[in-house]
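Hello, quick one for you while I still have it in my head. My current little project is about how a certain protein chain folds up. You're getting the sequence in one-letter code plus the fold written as tokens. Would you mind checking whether the tokens look sensible for this chain? Here's the protein in full, and shout if anything looks odd to you:
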Amino acid sequence: MNQKRITLIALALGLLGAQTLAQAQDYPNRTIKLVVAYAAGGPTDVIARIVAQELTPMLGQSVVVENRTGANGNIGNESVAQAPADGYTILVNTLSLNVNPLLNPARVKYNPSKDFTPINLAVVLPQYLVVGNDSPIKTVADLVNKAKATPGAVNYGSAGHGGSAHLSAALLAQRSGTQMTNVPFRGNGPALTEVMAGRVDFIFYPMIGVADFVAQNRLRIVAVTTPKRHPDTPNVPTMAESGYPGFEEYVGPVGFVAPAGTPAAVVQKLNTAISTVLAKPAIKQKLSGLGADVVSLGPNEYRTWLTQDHDRWAQLIKQANIKDE
């Protein structure tokens, strides 16, 4: 390669770097959309709106939430994968980012590791294993013993195939060597109603709202998926204490990812802003009240976490023989 060509390449790279820096310094100069792939009012949507409200004055531009629902989050995920990589369309991702391609490889039109740039893992959502208040099931052992005595007779509620409730129950069935039946509903709310009515045996449910139903003697908490007992329910054993360690790793993330190719300076600016929001005591308290554990991992750490998360779900889906619907 001659010296003239080397000089031209260096100039081109310098101009590209200067242009990228200029774009980052100018960012943002218009509205930023946070895409939530689920309906308004759910945990992901509520968390996104809390963060968006705080980001708006911090970034000097409106940060709005846009709900693009359907196909277990796939419609929203794919829309962001195909969006311009300019930092103005951000996905508020859940476990569906990794799980959907594993369950539906022929239909999903994105690669979770290649088509997105991680920004920040904001929170994770642990779950309670709950039963109806009148259920004879008092412990995880009671549940497993019932499933072993009558294979397939124990059923569990979920918000659909491939969701957190489905996969957590499938993990329990796989770890305990039992057969349990998934009963999908149009959302966690209707599934929980059937558990309270005694028509469905149990559900792995996000912590938000459970305390009210327990106080009304409509639900009983059997176990929690946190590493240690949760301060809100100190008498409830963890899944590990109940004989099934590892559930704390299979958590539902709520994070922020951008389309692949988004300038690093823009990603870092977003990460800094989101991290600042999550560090506010009032925001931490509000998110904790929703049953969310604040994590706030930056781009590199979040990329590593997503890779490990993908491998965890891939192993479970294979071992539990979970198929596409």
User: Anything to note?
Assistant: The chain has a mean pLDDT of 91. The domain at 127-249 is CATH 3.40.190.10 (D-Maltodextrin-Binding Protein; domain 2). The first strand starts at residue 32 and ends at 36.
